[in-house]
Amino acid sequence: MKIELLAPAKDALCGIEAINHGADAVYIGAPRFSARMAASNPIADIEGLVKHAHKYYAKVYVALNTILTDAELDEAQKIITELYNIGTDALIIQDMGITQLDLPPIPLHASTQMDNRTVGKVQFLEKAGFEQVVLARELSFAQIKEISSQTSVKLEAFIHGALCVSYSGQCYLSQATCGRSANRGNCAQLCRLPYSLIDANGKTIIQDKHLLSLQDLNLSEHLEKLIEAGVSSLKIEGRLKDTSYVKNVTAAYRQILDQLLEGTAHRKSSSGHCTYTFIPDTKKSFHRGGCLYFTEGRRKDITSFDTPKSTGERIGTVRQTKGSAITVNIQKPINNGDGLCFFNPEKKLIGFKVNRAEGPTLFPAERINIEPGTELFRNFDQQFEKTLAKKSADRKIGVSISITEKDKSLVINATDEDNVQVSFTPDYSPSELAQNAEKALEQLSTQFKKSGNTIFEVEEVKISTQPYFIPASLMATWRRELLERLESEREAKRERNEITFPQTHHPFPESELDYRGNLHNHLAVEFYKAHGVSHTEPSFEKESRNNVAVMTCKHCIRYSLGYCPKQQETKQRLQEPLYLVSEKGQKYRLKFDCLHCEMQLIY
Questions:
Q1: Element (H, E) at 481
Q2: What is d(CA 12, CA 26) in angstroms, rounded to the nearest whole number?
């Protein structure tokens, strides 16, 4: 099975760096209708990324995964046609109305916004014609394996990055509260704000904590379990992240995955190998801790109640403070310009910049109050970021060259790691033997081992000719032409996967769809009716509602705080119903479904 490392890109330059640092595929936002409105990209930019990726047989997937109005369908179809024409490898969509358009033969991937967490749903999407399905983040390894065992569609799963607290596609909190729809690409990220937990009597249980904020996902030590469960596409979250994040995290997972795949029947889905000017370390890029979420069952260490910000890597504890100086029991060297942070006694995250570092003694840019024994974290490594701001990786495709002699002419062959071959016979008949045979053959080998700024790395040169005298300039010309021909031949040999989306009528797993079906246009309604859905309701964005669930979560506040009635813990039961109240006074009732182990926010 080919295993794909899938990296995010906020723009084309970021996507190119993701490829350079080891991604097998990149996903990037379309010019419009992406679930990250702030990460939209012009067609011309995406085309440049596609051309670069295809050199390495890597792929570019374009996210066009919002729900669309009827008025937007024609524009969406135009954009899709343009994306197909520039060579885009697949579209990531949420709106089934798109499948009813006059589409070019471009593969479709089912976005995680479709809420893909059951065998029945994934089976339906496979029969409908989707090439790849992005699974819900909340699934366990066992649940993924169950889906894989009953389907043959490619499965994609998140391995790293921010976690949405709600099931994807099932969050209407932002739309309900401030008119910004997550399903339309404009989420206000209200889940990262502080809330107070209030009981039925108005008593404050928890005050001003980030009760809906989760840690980030980190499955770096569990990739093998995902692959064994049947996942072929390993996805890094982060289309709003900066380029240094994408470089570092992609490189870190590339190294882990290469080591994991070595000696197995699996292989990576693109070409080339990477070298780096830095040591990849996910702790040095933005992260809110690192949890396994629900991959191995429900656990408490998934939350980030104290702060939604990045804490970074632990670097030591404060030994003493004297004047403006802080002395640290240091575990890692600290540099001028580093950003450090700590939790004060009230559990508030406080950050500061190191103006000057003299070994374990730090001089902050501003005077701060910090007690001895306080843990220090570094969330900005100045030297690391400086390195990443420059060229920090090379990706090269392995090539073997052979030079033979036939009919008094030289024949030069090149074969790359994908077994793409070219043969080149120079218009030159060598006749003069070199005075120093050994040196001549050595020079021939040296000249053809050079690859310069090409995408290739010549790993071996086999020579079966007499030791002729050949000018170095002539050898350099031959080498350039040979590698240019090889790059052209790679593009000619690259297979494009073209799939015409079929019009099907197999039954959808549910016969009725309420607002959570996210039906925002007439073509989406027609699709589901053609697949046996007898009753549909308009989307929440089209028709707002009160006293309904605006968020459905696997995360449960009662469980995280030790009040789960199933756990038989010693804590007294809370007086329900419980409410979350924001700093602005917005109030949401919590509803607990213990049968399905879920929590809802009722607006």
A1: helix 472-493
A2: 10
Cβ neighbours around 476 below 10 Å, total: 14
Closest CA to 401 of 456, 474, 477: 456
Residue 248: which region, alpha, beta or left (left: phi > 0; alpha: psi -120 to 50)?
Answer: alpha
How far is the C-alpha of 269 from the C-alpha of 110, rounded, in Å? Answer: 20
Half-sphere exposure of 404 (CA within 13 A, CB side): 7
* Residue 175: closest CA among 165, 167, 185: 185
The pTM for the full model equals 0.96
Mean pLDDT computed over 157-178: 97
Q: Of all residues in the chain, what percent carry a pLDDT higher than 70?
A: 100
Query: Half-sphere exposure of residue 443, counting CA atoms within 13 Å on the CB side?
Result: 16
What average pLDDT score do residues 555-571 get? 85
Whether residue 38 has pLDDT greater than 90: no
CA–CA separation, 70 and 291 (whole Å): 40
Domains of the chain: 2-163+215-270+278-284 (3.20.20.70), 313-389 (2.40.10.170), 397-493 (no CATH)
Q: What is the DSSP string of 17-81?
A: HHHHTT-SEEEEE-SS--SSGGG---HHHHHHHHHHHHHTT-EEEEEE-S---GGGHHHHHHHHH
Model confidence at 571: pLDDT above 80: no
3-state secondary structure of 255: helix
pLDDT at 570 over 70: no
Strands 421-424, 409-416: pairing is: antiparallel
* Distance, CA of 173 to CA of 167 (rounded, Å): 12
User: What confidence tens digit (pLDDT) does each residue in 299-341 have?
Assistant: 888 999 999 999 999 999 999 998 889 999 988 899 999 999 9
CB atoms inside a 10 Å sphere around CB 564: 19
